[in-house]
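Possible regression after last week's pipeline update?

I re-ran a chain I had predicted before the update to compare outputs. Posting the input and the new output here so someone can diff against the archived version. Not blocking, just want to make sure nothing changed silently.
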Amino acid sequence: MDLYGRCLLSSHLSPTGTTEAEKTVFEKAFEIAGDVHPLVHTDRGSAYTSKSFNNFLNGHKVTRSMSRPGTPYDNAPMERWWSEFKLRWMNRHPVPKTYEELVRLVESGINYFNYTSRSDTRNGHTPAEFRNMAI
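New output (post-update):
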């Protein structure tokens, strides 16, 4: 997630949070963001603490930030996004019956939150509009 306007840059559905799955998410985000060397913040999950993942980030010249043990508030922006996504999107739609339905529901929800949902905190703009104004 790009914190400027809370625009979700990339996502990837995976049955488990493996290092390879997380690298896929970040690779997509780096392709979208272009030639930037961002600050990346993660929790302390095993996928994020692996040598492979850290070498991957180093290859993209990323500044690394990691939550402190026992302090979930360090990751509050992403946790808030997921909470809103579940409450305002997932809970308002029928439970998917297949993996394909789940993928479509999640992708349509991300599209809604990035390109349709407007907020007074972004002067009435969507996250994508707000991010594009900053670029």
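Follow-up from reviewer: compared with the archived run. The first strand starts at residue 39 and ends at 42. Marking as no regression found.
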